[in-house]
User: Fold this.
Amino acid sequence: MNNKFILESLASDLKRVAMGLHRGSNVMAQRFLDEALKRKSEVELKIVAPYIKKILAQLDKNINAENALMFSTLIQNYTQHKKF
Assistant:
């Protein structure tokens, strides 16, 4: 898979994590967090920007809704403006 698709899917999963945590649906949030962590391991780190590497390094099981939404937005903006 290419990096753009992986990062876009990761951003989408993180947005769902944020929505689930905000709504109090921890089961849904956990399911999408597991998906996001799988996607994180698929990203080819050699070709992403340093700030995306930092975001991915901070992404773990103990994420809150605000950080999930912020990471989602930053990754989505990166995929929209980066030429892959």
